[in-house]
Design a protein that fits this description.
The protein is an alpha/beta fold. It is built from eight helices and nine strands. The strands form three sheets. It has a five-stranded mixed β-sheet.
């Protein structure tokens, strides 16, 4: 037997760092995400940095299933359930993803080998400010169930920047504070700027005659807001199927008026941006004033 055929000379099989679920593979992936995505080293990393590194590591495992589901749907076109809701009360994503993927114990061991505690990292995640009560929780449960039952589905909604509010009690009174749930970013979503669409508001209709002499009517909106898509994978419980939550953020069609800025009208330069983005700032704004309505 040739020496090169010896078992000791065969290359070791190593799990892919993007998809493997072994403890050593997960530990390497967390370390790489901490360095390459968070831009930090273990000696200086905060608990928030480690949470993000673990979240990106878990998301990579979700992406494999998500893209596999997408390829399957493209190869075998089928009907897709479209669920529309004003809110989605998803809850923290890390713990849910670990449970659905069945890798909680492996990730806990990998994290512990890096001097961290998984439960503390799970608590580091800010709950998405995308829902409030029963309606939002029901919508999230529907999406979870559809994924687990392997029924192709897309959930459509709005990407609220600040959710509702954080409650504080001061001298017996409720104090409302901004819920900055996106302060540390959202590692679970993927922005899709290629899916941006103009949405018109207000305006009027006008009639005209087309080139063939036919009577026509068209709508001229008073204002136009750009809707930008964000995609979030929704994993099923211990299945390879993955559905998508498609949320839309409102942006101004023209975010900056350079002419107004040049003449010193600094507020006017960003007025359209502020007015447009207000649409998806808060889940349920105060509807007493006309602006809230």
């Amino acid at each position: 037997m040739n020496a090169n055929d010896s078992p000791s000379q065969k290359p070791a099989l190593v799990d892919d760092d993007r998809t493997g679920v072994g403890v050593d593979t997960l530990r390497r992936a967390i370390q790489e995400n901490l360095f390459y995505r968070c831009g930090n080293v273990p000696a200086l990393a905060t608990r928030s940095d480690y949470y993000l590194a673990v979240a990106y590591t878990v998301r990579d495992r979700l992406m494999q299933r998500w893209l596999s589901t997408a390829r399957s749907l493209l190869a075998h076109p089928t009907r897709v359930v479209c669920y529309l809701s004003a809110e989605y009360l998803l809850g923290p994503s890390l713990g849910n993803a670990l449970l659905n993927l069945g890798i909680r114990s492996q990730v806990a061991e990998a994290v512990e080998s890096l001097g961290q505690n998984l439960e503390e990292l799970i608590e580091e995640e800010r709950e998405p400010g995308l829902g409030n009560g029963g309606l939002g929780r029901l919508a999230a449960c529907f999406m979870d169930s559809l994924s687990t039952l392997q029924i192709p589905a897309v959930g459509y909604g709005l990407r609220y920047e600040f959710g509702i509010f954080e409650q504080r009690i001061h001298d017996g009174w409720q104090i409302e504070r901004t819920d900055k749930w996106l302060r540390q970013g959202n590692p679970w979503e993927v922005v899709r700027p290629e899916y941006s669409y103009p949405v018109g508001f207000g305006g009027h209709t006008e009639t005209y005659t087309d080139e063939n002499g036919r009577y026509r009517a068209r709508w001229r909106p008073d204002s136009v807001v750009k809707g930008v898509a964000y995609a979030t994978p929704i994993p099923g419980y211990k299945v390879n199927n993955m559905n998508m939550l498609r949320l839309w953020a409102a942006e101004a069609a023209e975010t900056f008026d350079f002419g107004s800025f040049n003449v010193g009208d600094y507020y006017g330069a960003v007025e359209r941006k502020v007015a447009s983005e207000t649409l998806t700032k808060v889940l349920y704004p105060n509807d007493e004033p006309a602006q809230g309505k």
